[in-house]
Amino acid sequence: MLHAIKPNEHGPLGEPMAHAVQTCVHCGFCLAACPTYHELGQEMDTPRGRIVLMKQVLEGTLPAATAQPHIDRCLGCLACEPACPSGVPYRDLISPYRAQVQERLPRTTGERLRRWLAAQTIPFPGRFRLALAGAGIGRALGALVPSALRPMLTLAPKHVPPAVHLPAVSPARGERRARVALLAGCAQQVLEPDINVATIDVLTRNGVEVLVPAAQGCCGGLAWHTGDLKAAQAFARRNLGAFPADVDAILTNAAGCGSAMHEYHLILRGTPDEARAETFRKRVVDVSVFLAQLGLREKPAGWSAPRKVAYHDACHLANAQNVRAEPRSLLRAIPGLELSELANAHLCCGSAGTYNLDQPAIADSLGRQKAEAVIATGAQVVATGNIGCLTQVRNHLGRLGSPVQVRHTLQVLRDAYTASAPRP
User: Where are the domains of the chain?
Assistant: First the structure.
């Protein structure tokens, strides 16, 4: 029976998990929205199937190891949430469940090493940059590299942009309309530091003073989505203390980061910091939402020739934060820009944090399909709002030999202000 899960048996996260399970009526509306069901066609690889599996594990009637292959294959894209007529808060179940069972799961030495390397490098820009610099050695070793680590080498870019120093304070141009603090991100600072540069440029042009707190760190999303609750809590606490209270908003320009910060109340549930986390998360806003609400004071010039731009909905922007209209409205504000939509736009691109490291076959298939959908639009540029999506789609467009450039929404907007061609 659905009520068999006893919340008090599973710590502070037991209640939200039990509620999510009890809300599901097993109607199956989620199946059509689920990328892994689209790929594999198996009931246990759907949100409905996974809810049944997690329920049985939490009740003690099924070993966690039996359910785990199907739980591991969940992208956490949350496409099931907007598709669900019952409003099942799947996010309140999947990450807390992983936090409950992760430590007692049997994993190979290679899997544990890969997860440890990812956790020790990606959230720390300095370490991550060094790791990417050393990836060339791993590629040269070829078959000598353990198979569990090869997806990391495949996905590591061969060219990493130079590091960019972000000013602690970037004053508003003209009359100040707002004052915000920006999360710089971790992987983004290494893989595409120009996103933050473009974000600050667009904000200051529109009368926004931008602070970049020096004490901030990783949002904790990678740890949270892989079940490392202690690490996620440490990252969350660091950011609770790093961001000032006297700003109009805390802005994010990476969908995954914004989604994770909106879940700080869940990550820190049952701790003395829960109330602070609840207040904090309500101040977190995606930059596209903030700009759309504020309004563009300075209108972008656009380009001398029309430009076709496709838009890819990052899952943790569209599904987790319900942000769909705002990025599109910013892009449509650019003269000469024709906005195109993607076929099967609800399907995840396969990035999903470290999913393309842990489940490379499924991630590759989803990434190829997304790249093909982009190419089919005939666009010169595809815009998105998440560094993981940007990296994944760029990788697969490159594999298909496509010249389509992948840009963050704020990069497209900045380029339109300066009337410069998008830079690769």
Answer: 2-104, 109-155, 169-293, 299-418
The whole-angstrom separation of Cα 361 and Cα 364 is 5
Strand 337-341 versus strand 249-252 pairing type: unpaired
pLDDT of residue 279: 97
Tokens 């993981």 sit on residue: 388
For residue 384, the SS3 value is strand
Read off the pLDDT band of 8 (50, 70, 90): low
With CA atoms as reference, report the closest residue to 204 among 407, 423, 414.
Answer: 414
Chain center to CA of 319:
11
Residues 6+ apart with CB under 8 A from 363: 350, 351, 352, 355, 356, 392
| pLDDT for 2 | 41
Please choose, from the candidates 288, 291, 334, 315, the residue with its C-alpha nearest in 3D space to the C-alpha of residue 389. Answer: 315
Closest C-alpha to 361, from 35, 110, 142, 43: 35
Q: Are strands 169-170 and 208-211 parallel, antiparallel or unpaired?
A: antiparallel
- pLDDT by residue (tens digit) across 146-195? 888 888 888 888 889 999 999 999 999 999 999 999 999 999 999 999 99
Q: Which numeric CATH code is attached to 2-104? A: 1.10.1060
Tokens of 311: 């838009």
| Contact between 289 and 250 (Cβ < 8 Å) | no
CATH fit for domain 169-293, picks 3.40.50, 3.20.20, 1.10.4030, 1.10.3470: 3.40.50
3-state class of 280 per DSSP?
helix
CA 221 to the chain's CA centroid: 8
Kindly report the number of other CB atoms within 10 A of residue 12's CB atom.
Answer: 15
Which of the listed CATH numbers 3.30.565.10, 1.20.1630.10, 3.40.50.10700, 3.40.50.300 matches domain 299-418? 3.40.50.10700
Tallying the residues shown for the chain, one arrives at: 424
Checking if the pLDDT of 397 tops 90, the result is yes
Distance CA 211, CA 314 (A): 25
Q: Please tell me the predicted confidence (pLDDT) of residue 136.
A: 82
Fold identical between 2-104 and 169-293? no
Let me know: does 320 contact 386? Beta carbons within 8 Å: no
Radius of gyration of the chain, Cα coordinates, nearest whole angstrom: 21
Q: Say what the alpha-carbon torsion angle 88, 90, 92, 93 is, to the nearest 10 degrees.
A: 110
- Gap between the Cα atoms of 135 and 113, Å rounded: 16
